[in-house]
Amino acid sequence: MDRNTIKDTGVLEQYLLGELSEKDAIAVEQILNEDQELQTYFNKMEDDMEQMAFENAIAPPTHIKSDLLNSIKNSETVSEEGVIPIQKKKKISYRFAIAASLAALFLASSGWFYNEWKNTKATIVTLQKETTNLQDRLVTIEGDLKETDKWYQAINNPKVIQLVLNGNDKSPTSTAIAYVNHQNKEVILNPQGLSKLDNTKTYQMWADVDGEMIDMGVIAQDQEMMIMKYIENAESLNITIEPAGGNDHPTVEQLISNVYL
Amino acid sequence: MKDDLVLIKKLQNQDTQALSRVYDLYSGAIYGVILRMCKDESLAQDLLQETFMKIWQKSHTYDPDKGKFFTWSYRIARNITLNSLRKKDTLIQTEDLSVYKERSTSEAEKDITQLEGSLKKLEPHHQKALELVYFNGLTHREAHEEMDVPLGTFKSYIKQALKKLRESYKEELVIVWIIIEMMR
Question: What is the CATH number of the domain that holds B158?
Fold first, then answer.
């Protein structure tokens, strides 16, 4: 087919309008591709047709454009949600389920561990306090034991003489116990049995040496055991009531108890 | 009008902004074609949307070496409209698949679809021939029957009409050129 035949048959017009079959259209395209002059002729025809269409343009209603853009947006989201292979989606949701379960498990266990940790911490604090308490108590008990042991050793010695000082008419309910160790030159007194005195008075202990009363010390009533002064060659032990703070000489009228060694 | 190849490239890369721009450029001309073909405003609006949907989906198949973007879009619009009219017709008349046997270009609808521009300056038979194939979507075979002239005659009508059109556009260009020259 030569150039002029093509022009005369009107096949180019039919091609432009899209009237030709696919086979014929491809043939025309091939001819146009090879024939520059025919191509230029066709381009002019296209320009004219386009201009004619633009001269006869009719403005469509404005909503069509927004409808178009919306439906494209929707079809895109639909294809993202729906058309993308279901298998893939399943895979995602399966993996997601595993991940979610693991996350939930981790979260739950984290919570549990956190609680446990808090509990443990509280327990440790309590235990530490208790330990400190026990340590303190142990120190106290050890001290007490040492004290008790000391007194026990002091009074349980076979060399120790135990003397009971009973109250006379002036203080009939009073009792005190004295432990005397001549070897170690020690005197220990348990004053717990003595009657209570008011704050202005105190008990005082004396040793009788050749008729002379020698001070052995003021008796502190709040102690269970106390060490008194050991006096050589004492013949008897005596307890008097004296003004608070003690006296240089015994008030013999206030003698409440005495015992001979 | 020269094709904006950058814009078309963007459209082919599924850029919705490019589609919006392409729509602004071509929708009027394409709607003019569709409406003149189907002569039903509501249907024409649906078909215009369908056409641009297809332009959007098939844009990657457009090859600038084979023709102008408008020619390509025109063919899509023409096919969609003809298919729609054919479906409509088959629902009514099951036997006859021809689109325009009963549907001649009636005078009553001319007011909406009246042709404008250089086409109006053409002789009536040239104008009619172009209108039938270009704006009414008839094949050359259908159109020559519609005009009741032999196919060869009809083809020469089209050829002459296009030649006249070209000349009138040339004249317009000269006038525009003169105006531009005078304004300098």
Answer: 1.10.10.10
